[in-house]
From TrEMBL, chain A:
It comes from the Bacteria. It comes from Promicromonospora citrea. The keyword Transmembrane applies. The chain crosses the membrane at residues 42-64, 76-95, 116-139, 159-183, 190-215, 235-255. This is ABC-2 type transport system permease protein. The keyword ATP-binding does not apply. Keywords: Membrane, Transmembrane, Transmembrane helix.
UniProtKB/TrEMBL annotation, chain B:
It comes from Promicromonospora citrea. Residues 2-228 form the ABC transporter domain. Keywords: ATP-binding, Nucleotide-binding, Transport. PROSITE patterns: ABC_TRANSPORTER_1, ABC_TRANSPORTER_2. Pfam families: ABC_tran. One of its GO terms (molecular function) is ATP binding. This is ABC transporter domain-containing protein.
Length: 263, 236
């Protein structure tokens, strides 16, 4: 230790004015970095990419279903993404509690709602990047299936791709929201997975059940969005399910996190 | 200057802090002493906005922590050296904080040097750090923003004698550079050597608030035990 070179002595070129509020972009950038800078995070991201690409290759090249189009090959990874991306969103919030890093995170930015918003933006960026990666990988995969003698289609439907990407973002944000609400990784993952399955059964329990499932099952209401076939009738259920699974839990989570005592 | 102004904190029937008032002036080290459960950590947690006070205020240069923009550039804090992600390297932990505060990357190297963590050690994940190394890392993080106030909860915990002396020298230098340093500790002799003032707390009440001179340094231990004798067994 040398007590002669205190950082108090002079400013460095990269220093910003300390009195300025922390810009939101800086918070979001740091939150993206926190999604990739630990081994746990890297394992999760690797599983996500390997799982999705693996499923894509098995489905397209090995099973050689029908006549593949690059669009279907890319969006066929949806179920894998909707398994892993929400877990990533959940862990981005709950690890602050399980690792107790919330102490530092909220000391650096005491406006806790702002930190959660930065986490939502970071998770959105990862979801969009993953979707883009799937579309990119779908090209060689589709081409490889063509080598086996099928006639693939390389046509893309931009509207459907944006809708599909938005669907992936919605599932990811659902994870962030559940994580913020429950502040417990295991519980949030269970709630997310059980809810995904449970709606199928609710839909079978008569008139009321099927109406509820039609309006509030995010897996169902996002199908028209992901397929690029949004109709006016599909808008209401989509918004209702986003409200129930993304907006309401996120807002309740922000309220909870703002009040909670950090330990 | 750090100011605790009639701070009271109630948890159900328990009064964790009972009308606590004291100041930590700039350019000084104030030792915050008291048995476990006396309220030291609670007072520091309220100062940093981790917990709300039932009544009263804790401020830094007149402002509550949450009202300060980019607060880590004004107040450095280490409340719990264990609250670090074990999967991150020491250097990455500091780099994340530096990025939020908006200080030059080279600050990371500077503060590592200040607390005596080597570059090689900083490249290892925190998982393998001893408590002493985590304390050093936490102090480094607290110093990143060149703060005017420094709040440390038992930073000597887990440090070896070399580390304790090094931290003592460092905090002296930091205070001499103008910083208001509040430091809780159970090491009475260390505090007697380092601090300009001591505040003794027991069962949530301030029992003593005094400057330290040669005489008080001599009998700090006697004074501490006579003041807190009734607290020993009752403390949580």
């Amino acid at each position: 230790m040398s007590s002669t070179t205190l950082p108090w002595t002079g400013r460095l070129p990269g220093d910003v004015s300390p009195s300025r509020t922390v810009p939101f972009a800086r918070l979001a950038t740091v939150e993206i970095r926190k999604l990739t800078d630990t081994r746990t995070a890297l394992v999760l991201l690797t599983l996500l990419v390997l799982g999705a690409v693996g499923a894509m290759i098995v489905r397209t090249v090995v099973l050689a279903q029908d006549v593949p189009g690059v669009q279907d090959v890319a969006t066929g990874t949806g179920p894998v993404l909707s398994l892993f991306l929400p877990i990533l969103g959940i862990v981005s919030v709950t690890s602050e509690w399980s690792r107790r890093t919330a102490l530092t995170t909220f000391a650096l930015e005491p406006r806790r709602g702002r930190v959660l918003a930065a986490k939502a933006v970071a998770a959105t960026v990862v979801a969009v990047a993953t979707s883009a990666l799937m579309i990119a990988v779908a090209y060689p995969t589709t081409a490889a299936s063509a080598a086996r003698g099928t006639e693939p289609s390389f046509a893309l439907d931009p509207v459907a791709l944006v809708g599909w990407t938005a669907t992936n973002v919605l599932f990811t944000l659902c994870g962030v929201a559940l994580g913020a609400l429950l502040l417990n990784g295991a519980a949030s993952i269970v709630v997310y997975l059980v809810a995904s399955i449970a709606w199928g059964f609710v839909g079978l329990t008569g008139e009321l059940g099927s109406t509820l499932a039609r309006w509030f099952d995010l897996n169902g209401t996002t199908v028209p969005l992901a397929d690029g076939e949004m109709s006016p009738e599909a808008v209401g259920p989509l918004l209702a399910s986003i409200g129930l699974w993304v907006v309401v839990p996120f807002l309740l989570g922000v309220l909870r996190v703002r009040r909670i005592e950090l330990r | 200057m750090i100011t605790f102004d009639h701070l009271t904190k109630r948890y159900g029937a328990t009064l964790a802090l009972d009308d606590v008032s004291f100041e930590v002036p700039a350019s000084s080290v104030t030792g915050f002493l008291g048995p476990n459960g006396a309220g030291k950590t609670t007072a520091m947690r309220i100062l940093l906005g981790h917990t709300r006070a039932t009544s009263g205020r804790a401020t830094i240069d007149g402002r509550q922590y949450a009202a300060i923009s980019n607060p880590a550039a004004t107040v450095g804090a280490l409340l719990d050296a264990q609250a670090v992600h074990p999967g991150r390297t020491g250097a990455e932990t500091l780099a994340l904080a530096a990025a939020v505060i908006g200080v030059d990357r080279r600050r990371v190297g500077q503060v590592l040097d200040l607390v005596g963590l080597s570059v090689a050690e900083s490249r290892r994940t925190v998982k393998g750090y001893s408590l002493g190394m985590r304390q050093r890392l936490g102090i480094a993080q607290a110093l990143l923003g060149s703060p005017r106030a420094l709040v440390l909860d038992e930073p000597a915990n887990g440090l070896d004698p070399q580390g304790i002396r090094a931290v003592r020298d460092l905090l002296r230098a930091v205070a001499d550079a103008g910083c208001a340093v509040l430091l809780s500790s159970h090491l009475l002799h260390e505090v007697a050597q380092l601090a300009d003032r001591v505040v003794i707390i027991g069962r949530g009440r301030i029992l003593e608030d005094t400057t330290i001179d040669d005489t008080t340094a001599q009998d700090l231990e006697t004074r501490y035990f006579s003041l807190t004798s009734t607290e020993d067994r009752s403390a949580a």
